[in-house]
Amino acid sequence: MYRYDEFDERFVRERVAQFRDQVGRRLDGSLTEDEFKPLRLKNGVYLQLHAYMLRIAVPYGTLSSKQMRQLALIGERYDRGYGHFTTRTNLQFNWPKLRDIPDILDLLADVEMHAIQTSGNCIRNVTADHFAGVAQDEIEDPRPTAELIRQWSSLHPEFDYLPRKFKIAVTGAAHDRAVIKAHDIGLRILRHPDTHEIGYEVIVGGGLGRTPMIGKVVREFLPKADLLAYLEAIMRVYNLEGRRDNKYKARVKILVHEIGTEEFSRRVEEEFARLDGPSVNADPAEVARIAAYFAPPAYEALPATSGAFEAAKAGNPDFARWVETNVTPHRQAGYAALTISLKPIGAPPGDATSEQMRLVADLADEFSLSEIRVTHAQNLVLPQVKQADLFAVWRRLGEAALATANVGLITDIIACPGLDYCALATARSIPIAQALAQRFADAGRQKEIGELNIKISGCINACGHHHVGHIGILGLEKRGIESYQITLGGDATENAAIGEILGPGLAAEDVPDAIERIVSVYLAQRQTGESFIDNVRRIGLAPFKAAFQEANREVSHAVA
Fold first, then answer.
1. What backbone phi and psi angles, to 5 degrees, belong to 555?
2. Contact 348/432 with Cβ under 8 angstroms?
3. What CA–CA distance (Å, rounded) separates 152 from 24?
4. Which phi and psi (to 5°) does residue 389 adopt?
5. Are the C-beta atoms of 416 and 465 separated by less than 8 Å?
6. Which residue, 257, 159, 275, is CA-closest to 216?
7. H or E segment at 338?
8. Is there a contact between 287 and 241 (Cβ–Cβ < 8 Å)?
9. For a Cys staple, 60 with which of 13, 128, 299, 368, CB 3.0–4.6 Å?
10. 483 DSSP β-pair partners
């Protein structure tokens, strides 16, 4: 993984010292809260319902064991002993005291981490496929590209005050695990169909929130060497043309929608042609320096299948079930990538205690070349585990309530913190996720249902990605009461789609029954081997709407 150079180190340390002075002036009253707000947001500090929240960047979802231990220490010393992993692969601490945040940032700097640009109208944390470098369907590891973008975008003087926040994601695989079509810019590494040269498909204008949209292809093939100049051209067009009079219409997706994809592409190409590419694009030597940090490790030569692994599966059904859901094939023979579910039944999705973080760090050192990944689905990954070690890892995870066998299943629910923490939220998310997980807790039933992604947001900002959930749940406030709107048919993959609303909002206590009815329609209508999302696409929304409306009528009669 990437290691800071002298510039990175100095850059982060100077920012910590600067913010320490700003916090001191806020605490002694020299700065008002209104004056302090833009300064703290530039350093990832939010004011939530009950306390400040610190959002820490985890670039392209990659952590070392050393960094994970430092996060555990911070959670224990300055928070309440846990952290919350988010859909942007960041980690949030929800209870730090403002006076302690500069000390926290110093501890982060000690392990090459920071909270810069995790908020504000700037280019946010760059994300990537959590199986980068190990996926069997990968064309090229996207992490060097993501790191290059991180360096280019950090405190970029021209793009530090954009019309609105800006998010970039990169994938290097055929199957999109980075949700690139729901980002302001999505990059897909691919080979040119004629020359076989590696470059990028460039997608612009995706995003969720108040006006969800799927991104549009603005360049079918961009040579790798031109990446930064082309990104610069996109950002210049957006920075100049993006609306600043209305924050709800300030994202680049609105600009692309209002002027059209063709016109937006024309303006970008025009700006790209004007730019002095060599002065903007990265020096090939620098690209090579960055890429060297992501060179494949020295894997052991192992047989494709481990006898000990196969014997452990045959002798332990619980382990076999966990392997089926949580273990992913590796591009290197004899290895696997394993996903650690942070969705134990009844717990807040994405939370990990300091003790659990330390255990994951220990397991990474012992079994995964000291490397950990954070997924946009709020889980963790050990990407470099020998098949023969999987049983030992599973047993250790089980001792810490981290061996839940549900990745990709109905209880692997994405949820934002919602009204339990967030000042922007209009309804709770965590209790809904907990109630649904309890309703579908039976392992056999989860397996019968198969892959089904539920995503929950506590407000229209869609931090829980509900728009692209197979089943999406949006919490709203109506006349002082929490109401939950259900959508169906969303997709976060290369087949990205925005879900459609099924009907009127429901009370919190009625959501599990409604989801039960939706699942029942699927089980009754599906063909052999058909997944939930494929079933929705084949039969359409009408059968699901009918069941949903019937549930609403029953609720109305019961209330009457």
1. -65, -45
2. no
3. 30
4. -95, -5
5. no
6. 257
7. strand 335-340
8. no
9. 128
10. 476
Quote the CA–CA distance of 436 and 454 in Å, as a whole number. Answer: 9
**Contact between residue 251 and residue 207 where contact means Cβ atoms under 8 Å apart:** yes
- For residues 495 and 470, the answer to whether their CB atoms sit within 8 Å is no
SS (H, E, C) 106-156: HHHHHCCCCCCCCCCCCECCCEECCCCCCCCCECCCCHHHHHHHHHHHCCC
Q: If we measure between CA atoms, which residue out of 68, 69, 87 comes closest to residue 178?
A: 87
Cβ contact 398:102 at 8 Å: no
Question: At residue 92, what is the residue type?
Answer: Q
Sign of the dihedral defined by the CA atoms of residues 535, 537, 543, 546, in that order: positive
pLDDT string in tens for the chain (560-residue length): 899 989 999 999 999 999 999 999 999 999 999 999 999 999 999 999 999 999 999 999 999 999 999 999 999 999 999 999 999 999 999 999 999 999 999 999 999 999 999 999 999 999 999 999 999 999 999 999 999 999 999 989 999 999 999 999 999 999 999 999 999 999 999 999 999 999 999 999 999 999 999 999 999 999 999 999 999 999 999 999 999 999 999 999 999 999 999 999 999 999 999 999 999 999 999 999 999 999 999 999 999 999 999 999 999 999 999 999 999 999 999 999 999 999 999 999 999 999 999 999 999 999 999 999 999 999 999 999 999 999 999 999 999 999 999 999 999 999 999 999 999 999 999 999 999 999 999 999 999 999 999 999 999 999 999 999 999 999 999 989 999 999 999 999 999 999 999 999 999 999 999 999 999 999 999 999 999 999 999 999 999 999 998 767 666 544 44
Q: Which residues contact 402 (CB under 8 A, 6 or more apart)?
A: 340, 341, 342, 344, 356, 359, 360
Say which amino acid occupies 128: A
Question: Which of 440, 273, 241, 421 has its CA nearest to residue 348?
Answer: 421
Tell me the whole-structure pTM to 2 decimals: 0.97
Q: 234 with 204: CB under 8 angstroms?
A: yes
* Token pair listed for 332: 């290197």
Return the exposure string of 405-415: e unless at least 16 CB atoms fall within 10 Å of the residue's CB, then b.
bbbbbbbbbbb
Q: Are 159 and 122 a contacting pair, CB within 8 Å?
A: yes
Q: Which candidate, 239, 258, 256, 215, places its Cα nearest to that of 163? A: 239
Give the Cα separation of 433 and 439 in Å (integer): 10
**Cα 528 to chain center, whole Å?**
32
Task: Classify residue 499 by its DSSP letter.
Answer: -
Could you tell me the strand order of the sheet in which 454-457 lies?
414-415, 454-457, 471-478, 481-488, 500-501
Of 216, 131, 205, the C-alpha closest to 166 is: 205
Contact 418, 412 (CB under 8 A): no
CA–CA distance from 428 to each of 115, 350, 474, 491 (Å)?
A: 26, 15, 10, 23
| Half-sphere exposure (Cβ direction) of 224: Cα atoms closer than 13 Å | 22
